[in-house]
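Appendix B. Chain record.
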Amino acid sequence: MNLLTSMKNQLRLGGLLTIVLVTLSYSSITVFTEGQRLEQQGRRSLETNLSLKAQYIERWLESRLTDLRLLALMREFKQADQAQAGALLRLSQGYLGHIR
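Structure tokens predicted for this chain:
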């Protein structure tokens, strides 16, 4: 009888250990794959953010270039009237700064 009881206990212990090992394996795999998914999602988010910032900077630079071209066409700049040119530059920076 002791032998049967001992075998039953060993089978129960073996079954319990098998269940624990399967549960731990499944949890480990789930954590690993979810971690990879979150990492990829984070990378995509950062790439999108960087792309948007790059577009913003490019548009800002294009706008500044347009402002400079318009100012260069003005008579005061062509005639090298530094006082009027400086006043126009300050005026355009204040005015254009409020528009953007």
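Further analysis of this model is presented in Appendix C.
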